[in-house]
């Protein structure tokens, strides 16, 4: 039962992620809040809200991955696994995530682009950096998740002090480094893979390792608190979430920590935050909200009506791959994009289909041995 709130939060953010991708694949409308590039803004309140709720997803994925790494390691150690067995599992799963990105995720996005009739999504990608010719490797959020898992294989045994330090240094270094760069510079590919969202001759990365690793180490820290503070941890989540949001409000009013001075003129521009890389105000707000939802789900964990959400959380990687193809096909009749209302209807219809598919897969996965590759999906 103690991990049920984690599964529910993961399932909840999978639902929000599906909304964001339905926006891109059905309505052909998607927004991209990246450093150093002018952002045109959202056309109306509905599109702002659709994008804003999806901001919970990436921080939630990395935070919950950190929690799951720590809790998984503890569970397998109790089952008799050695440290190396645990690390080997994370190496395999991190590598599998990268393979899925290359051979399963990319074709899903490609299928959606094919159905678009060559039209791009409104608010599409304009990247800092320069690209002229040569080898080019695009990456997605699965790159950040897979690489962070490979690194976290060595981090889950660290004590709380080291985890706090790594979390702080991750964001401090990312913020300092971005301020040293010009968005018109020619970036080194290694810099793009590790530090700087953007494009170079060799790489296009929007989830580099270092900025997001801090969210993973924060998740590992929270799992360690869960192990030692089983009764208090969810109350701590509520308090910490509220503190994070208060810190966000203070910094945002002072226009500190958003990687660029976007002078806000209304409340929508106030909540327009740089996501790539995650600015400190972006992280404070989104992680704060996620922690509050973790508390809420700890109070709702026993309710049967949340079972579909829990199933989505327990089959997150499978859900991720399948939903790309499902929404790509649902978007096929709308090569120039649907209205926001039609998109929301098809998003919900897709979730119903995904529930039955994910329910079947969960039963199938549970029938496999603990060390089966199927258990990693």
Describe the 3D structure.
The chain is mostly helical. The mean pLDDT is 94. It has one domain (4-376). It contains 14 helices and three strands. A three-stranded mixed β-sheet has the order 1-3-2. It is globular and about 50 Å long. α1 packs across α12 (307-314) and α3 packs parallel to α5 (141-152).
User: What low-confidence regions span 5 or more consecutive residues with pLDDT below 50?
Assistant: none
Computed Rg: 20 Å
Instruction: Determine the mean pLDDT.
Output: 94
Q: Which outline best applies?
A: globular
What distance lies between the first and last C-alpha atoms, to the nearest angstrom?
A: 21 Å
Strand order of the largest sheet: 1-3-2
Number of domains as seen in the coordinates? 1
Per DSSP E runs of 2 or more residues, the count of β-strands stands at 3
Structural class: mainly alpha
**Number of DSSP helices?**
14
Multimerization state:
single chain
Largest sheet: 3 strands, mixed
The ordered string of helix (H) and strand (E) elements is HHHHEHHHEEHHHHHHH
Percentage of β-strand residues: under 5%
Blueprint (SSEs and pairs):
Elements: H1 4-25, H2 45-54, H3 57-78, H4 83-115, E1 137-138, H5 141-152, H6 160-179, H7 189-194, E2 198-200, E3 203-205, H8 209-228, H9 233-253, H10 267-270, H11 280-300, H12 307-314, H13 316-330, H14 340-366
Parallel strand pairs: 1-3
Antiparallel strand pairs: 2-3
Helix pairs in contact: 1-2, 1-3, 1-11, 1-12, 1-13, 1-14, 3-5, 3-8, 3-11, 4-5, 4-13, 5-8, 6-8, 9-11, 12-14, 13-14
